[in-house]
Design brief:
The complex is a heterodimer of chains A (about 140) and B (about 625).
Chain A: H1 2-39, H2 43-46, H3 67-76, H4 99-110, H5 123-134
Chain B: H1 2-11, H2 14-19, H3 35-41, H4 61-71, E1 76-79, H5 86-94, E2 104-107, H6 111-125, E3 130-134, H7 135-151, E4 156-162, E5 186-188, H8 193-208, E6 214-220, H9 221-225, H10 246-258, E7 262-266, H11 272-285, E8 288-290, E9 317-321, E10 328-331, E11 368-370, H12 373-387, H13 394-422, H14 433-444, E12 449-451, H15 486-498, E13 503-509, H16 510-513, H17 518-525, E14 530-536, H18 541-554, H19 574-580, E15 584-589, H20 595-607, E16 612-617
Parallel strand pairs in B: 1-2, 1-3, 3-4, 4-6, 5-6, 7-8, 7-9, 9-10, 10-11, 12-13, 13-14, 14-16, 15-16
Helix pairs in contact in B: 1-19, 4-5, 4-8, 6-7, 6-15, 10-12, 11-12, 14-20, 15-17
The chains are: A mainly alpha (about 140), B alpha/beta (about 625).
Chain lengths: ~140, ~625
């Protein structure tokens, strides 16, 4: 019985240590990722909080499914010399953002959370909707 | 709010000014202005009761020029003072009873701003105001703004003073108007006072006749100062607008009557009267309507019950009014029609040169008619009334009822979808532009408002949420994308709004304001009801994105694109900038929860006749 308790305690200890290490690594990643996110201008389309014109907050689909897909997406963006000025998402080659930096940006984006109120919880929107119904 | 309080202290009020009448500026011993001189400065004064017959000037030519402007109902003339029109300026502020009224002289701190004001005013009112510019140098300062008016087909009456004495030879030229001839509609340099008077009348007519645009009259100083003697001002003849023929009007009326699902595509008309006629035609014919009211001024009211697709997409007859129409399209002449008068082949710019680059999409209907839609509308209405029964048309009234119901349903569905999108980033800091527009709308919706600034850089969040029902609800874009337009055009919209209990909303991009901030002072000095809300993303954001893309293509340095594109180190304090120009202000605001109270203060100030600026730190787009 004692052996079992010791084994369980060890498992818990290792799990906690591993979690702490992982969290610390993620935190370091996201901290570095923040600097990269801002310096490479990701904010210009995705916003300072991932809630910009092309939002990334809360995104768990598509390119945000994994680091690999995210990195692949950065590399696969169009890299043709534009005839007209383009504000599409740029191509980020390894020269510009290497794989480890891409992971750090990915980690930072994962920290974005957007929890806006529901429509009916925003009084001005509720009033607009109520008024629109009254217009009938 | 600290800056607001400071601003109030600086601005003071008439009482505090009065109490300091005898205050002396110790730095230069020049007395502070008295209450009476301040009143005179804003035009609240009376002309002398008698004219001294012994003076050297009895009936100066410039008095007659001002009378012509009065007869043309020119409400305002904006200028930065200059020697080449000193005589005309003196007449504006002293001639007439009361003087300095129609036109009232508006002090602009830059010639570009003066023309921007005229641009914003004309788009609000469908009627031009005037500007005065100083010789070669003033006209060159104003050139970019004139270019934008031309592209925007906006009427502006430009007077250029020409002093061909030896006062300043650099500031005169044989043909001053030639500097901007490629992008003005008409110009003249009259050689006599009589010609000058008729040329001002013609310049007005040319400006308001499609294709509308800026026109220039160069007035020599000696003509302005000339004694008029018994010279009579020429009779003014209104311009002739090209209309469709009676046969064309009859066919359109017949097609509208016979169509099961008629539709009107209404673009930008010339005046509010034209919009009233478009509404009349839609209601008379039971047509559904597509409007351009969210893209620019002078179009069909967006929330009119017939505005929408009426639940029908199989429209069997579409009439375009200054817009494309599947079956008939009445559109005024393009700027290229003016080519014969201008040097477009050698100089020509953009879409106003020959050969011209084809438009991006074909807007032509199969029955295009080059005529002024607004002038043609009464003919169509008249023909429709003639051929339709005098009894109420049950088919049309049923269609109106059905369209109205469908349009309301569509509006309600779309509004919910629109608002759903605006929740994103609701509590974020920097402030989301969706929240900025959302917080503002409930506070202005019951007022008479005009959105004066182009909104493409602030993501056009008014569209779908705000109701664009007035000719001036949204004044549209710059004309040619030239930056520095917003605050000047907003001051011009403010001039239009001032006497009409209207307020002006200017969502002001930070980069744009730094070109021509002097219009803040003009707004404060003339007490224009303009609420400026900074979209302060601290950069030239479009260029940030362009450069990122370019660096991405070249595979290098996407972390260096802030160089030359951002406004940091140091940040610019726009509330203090406004305060320096004498405008009440506050900010910067970074917490979205602070918007509502700030907007409330701003609107209260503007309703009291004092412009106000709120600096908001925003998301890039």
């Amino acid at each position: 019985m004692n052996n079992l308790i010791i084994k369980i305690t060890r498992v818990i200890k290792y799990t906690v240590c591993f979690s702490l290490l992982f969290t610390k690594a993620l935190s370091e990643d996201s901290s570095e990722g923040e600097k990269l996110y801002l310096s490479h201008g990701c904010y210009s389309c995705h916003g300072y909080n991932g809630t910009g014109r092309y939002p990334l907050a809360n995104d768990i689909s598509g390119i945000m499914t994994s680091e690999e897909l995210f990195t692949m997406f950065l590399r696969l963006r169009a890299d043709l010399n534009p005839v007209s000025p383009s504000n599409s998402m740029p191509n980020y080659s390894k020269n510009v953002i290497d794989d480890s930096e891409a992971k750090q940006i990915y980690a930072y984006i994962k920290t974005f959370k957007d929890s806006p109120p529901q429509l009916e919880e925003i009084p001005i929107f509720k009033e607009m909707l109520d008024n629109s119904n009254r217009k009938e | 709010m600290g800056s607001s309080a400071s601003a109030a202290a600086i601005l003071g009020n008439p009482v505090s000014v009065q109490s300091e009448e005898n205050r002396v500026n110790k730095n230069n011993s020049i007395p502070a202005p008295t209450q009476s001189s301040l009143e005179r400065d804003v035009g609240d004064t009376r002309p002398p009761n008698t004219i001294d017959k012994d003076r050297a000037a009895i009936r100066p030519g410039s008095d007659l020029m001002v009378q012509v402007l009065k007869d043309l109902n020119i409400e305002y003339i904006a200028a930065n003072p200059a020697s080449s029109f000193e005589a005309l300026q003196e007449s504006i502020v002293n001639y007439g009873s009361p003087p300095n009224t129609t036109p009232e002289l508006i002090t602009a701190l830059h010639e570009e701003s003066a023309v921007d004001m005229a641009h914003g005013y004309a788009k609000s009112q469908g009627h031009p105001m005037a500007v005065m510019l100083h010789g070669t140098v003033g006209l060159q300062h104003a050139a970019m703004a004139i270019y934008q008016c031309y592209h925007d087909k906006t009427p502006v009456l430009i007077i250029v003073g020409r002093d061909d004495t030896f006062f300043r030879q650099e500031q005169t030229a044989n043909d001053i108007a030639g500097l901007t001839r490629a992008f003005t509609k008409w110009d003249s340099q009259p050689e006599s006072l009589e010609s000058a008077l008729s040329d001002i009348q013609r310049a007005f007519n040319e400006a308001i006749t499609p294709p509308m645009g800026p026109t220039v009259v160069v007035l020599d100083t000696h003509i302005q100062k000339e004694e008029a003697g018994n010279l009579v001002i020429p009779n003014y003849q209104s311009p002739v607008f090209k209309k469709i023929s009676r046969n064309q009007a009859r066919k359109i009326a017949k097609d509208l009557l016979e169509a099961e699902n008629p539709r009107l595509h209404v673009g930008r008309l010339r005046t509010p009267e034209g919009i009233a006629d478009a509404v009349r035609l839609a209601e008379l014919t039971g047509s559904s309507v597509r409007t351009s009211a969210t893209a620019g001024p002078m179009s069909f009211p967006e929330r009119h019950p017939l505005c929408g697709n009426g639940g029908k997409i199989d429209h069997d007859y579409i009439l375009g009014l200054e817009s494309d129409g599947k079956d008939a399209s009445i559109q005024g002449p393009t700027l290229l029609s003016n080519a014969a008068n201008r040097d477009l082949t050698n100089i020509g710019f953009g879409f106003i040169r020959e050969p011209v680059i084809p438009p991006r999409r074909d807007l032509s209907g199969k029955n295009d008619i080059t005529a002024d839609a607004e002038s043609s509308l009464p003919l169509i209405i008249n023909e429709f009334e003639t051929i339709s029964s005098s009894d109420p048309n049950k088919v049309i009234s049923n269609r109106i009822e059905s369209y109205s119901k469908e349009n309301m349903n569509t509006y309600q569905d779309e509004l919910k979808k629109t608002l759903e999108k605006k929740r994103k980033g609701w509590n974020s800091s920097p402030v989301s532009l969706a929240r900025l527009y959302s917080e503002l709308w409930p506070m202005i919706k019951d007022l008479d408002w005009c959105l004066s600034s182009p909104t493409v850089f602030s993501s056009r969040h008014h569209v779908g949420m705000w109701d664009h029902n007035k000719p001036y609800s949204y004044l549209g874009m710059h004309g040619a994308g030239g930056i520095g337009y917003c605050i000047g055009a907003s001051a011009g919209a403010g001039l239009a709004a001032k006497k009409r209990e209207r307020i002006v909303i200017n969502i002001q991009c930070d980069g744009d304001l730094n070109y021509t901030p002097g219009s803040l002072w003009t707004a404060a000095h003339h007490k224009l009801p303009v609420l400026t809300i900074m979209h302060n993303n601290r950069g030239y954001h479009q260029e940030v994105m362009y450069l990122h893309y370019m660096a991405g293509v070249r595979g290098r340095g996407t972390d260096r694109m802030h160089i030359g594109t951002t406004l940091r180190d140091p940040f610019i304090d726009y509330a203090k900038l406004a305060e320096a120009y004498g405008m009440n202000s506050e900010g910067p605001i970074e917490n979205p929860d602070d918007l509502k109270a700030a907007f409330s203060r701003g609107i209260r100030s503007v309703l009291d006749g004092e412009p106000y600026l709120i600096d908001v730190i925003t998301e890039p787009r």
